[in-house]
């Protein structure tokens, strides 16, 4: 009787959408955003974002330290919602997208954070041809089958702070703040298996 009950619990757990085995999740560009904000002469804190982001998350719920993430951002997709400013940000004064068309992040370690759904994702961030180690303070929002696609899906938010001068983009410092806040939100799903 005990064995039957244990089996029933195990089957219920498996069918509940629990994420036990390591899976690779592909980021959904329509529900993934990377935005950054800065202080402008002490008056305002503008926000801009990138519209073209690709990446994958290898998420292992059993051993979070075996998880990893890789992201590539097309810097030419920068969007400040002001056309002239987009052109300035894309110029050699800032991102110099003609010379450096992409920025990347590749994790080197993932650790548990202060709470069950908190993670510390460390890795190498490359912007403007310069690579620096950073740590993202990440939150696991949800891990479950997506209600529309039915595919296993994970959702994360993350935040980190960098000094843009560390990446060779120090124009107008200190009037325009050196420190930049970067916020990430993403949904990523396991790719559907196609028939042979």
Describe this structure in words.
With 196 residues, the chain is mainly beta. The protein has a single domain, classed as Beta Barrel (Lipocalin). The protein is built from 2 helices and 11 strands, in the order αββββββαβββββ. Strands 1-4-5-7-8-9-10-11 form an 8-stranded antiparallel barrel. 18% of the residues are buried. The model is unreliable at 1-18 (pLDDT under 50).
Outline type? globular
Please state the second-level CATH architecture.
Beta Barrel
* Residue runs with pLDDT of under 50 for 5 or more positions: 1-18
Radius of gyration: 20 Å
The helix count comes to 2
Distance between the termini: 42 Å
**Beta-strand percentage?**
over 45%
Tell me the CATH superfamily: Lipid/polyisoprenoid-binding, YceI-like
CATH topology: Lipocalin
Task: Give the total of beta strands.
Answer: 11
The portion of residues assigned to helices is 10-25%
Indicate the mean pLDDT.
89
The secondary structure category is mainly beta
SSE ordering: HEEEEEEHEEEEE
Strand neighbour order, sheet with most strands: 1-4-5-7-8-9-10-11
């Amino acid at each position: 009787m005990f064995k039957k009950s244990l089996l029933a619990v195990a089957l219920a757990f498996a069918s509940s959408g629990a994420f036990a085995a390591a899976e690779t999740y592909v980021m959904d560009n329509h529900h993934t955003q990377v935005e950054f904000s800065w202080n402008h002469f002490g008056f305002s804190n503008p926000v801009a974002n990138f519209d073209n982001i690709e990446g994958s998350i290898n998420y292992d719920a059993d051993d979070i330290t075996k998880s990893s993430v890789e992201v590539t951002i097309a810097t030419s997709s920068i969007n400040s919602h002001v056309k002239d400013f987009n052109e300035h940000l894309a110029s050699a004064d800032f991102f110099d997208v003609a010379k450096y068309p992409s920025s990347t992040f590749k994790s080197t370690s993932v650790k548990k954070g202060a709470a069950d759904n908190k993670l510390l994702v460390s890795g190498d961030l490359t912007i403007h041809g310069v690579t620096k180690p950073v740590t993202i303070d990440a939150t696991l929002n949800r891990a479950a089958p997506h209600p529309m696609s039915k595919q296993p899906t994970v959702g994360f938010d993350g935040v980190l702070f960098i000094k843009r001068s560390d990446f060779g983009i120090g124009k107008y410092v200190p009037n325009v703040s050196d420190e930049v806040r970067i916020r990430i939100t993403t949904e990523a799903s396991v790719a559907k298996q196609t028939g042979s």
